[in-house]
Amino acid sequence: MTVNTKQAPRRTLKLGSLGDISADLDTIQAAHDAGTLSHTGNWTPGQIFEHVATLMECAIDGFPSKPPPPVRWMITLLFKKKALSGEASPAGFKLPKKAEFLLPGDSTSFDEGMARLRTVLGRIESGERFTHDSPVFGKLTHEQWITLQSGHAILHLSFLALG
pTM of the full predicted structure? Predict the structure, then answer.
């Protein structure tokens, strides 16, 4: 059964940095270890971690595709200010076909997804930077990418219930 993610219950999160994301992952790991972790959306915790990691990896390594210019212009006009505000991305957004590379696999385990997300966070902590243009917003600074990544993580991690 598919959940309407616009109406699903979610945790209230404030993640203003990659360190905040890492700290929330520690809390999520503790709930998983205690057997109290559940999710209120359509993706498992492993799928959520994989998806959040994929966007971070692409901002470091490059994106395989981008939408056509009119679509990029419209998305930038409507969503860039919100995306760079540090607030949660809107729930219920369906990715277009050209962005399906961001979708997680059907069977990503908690441990696999967590390891992938922690690996990409480790890359950034070790000095790698978000340098690639956003496929929709164009050129972003590393700091703008952190703000966007934080808002993206708020959206997805908020579907994980800790107890």
Answer: 0.94
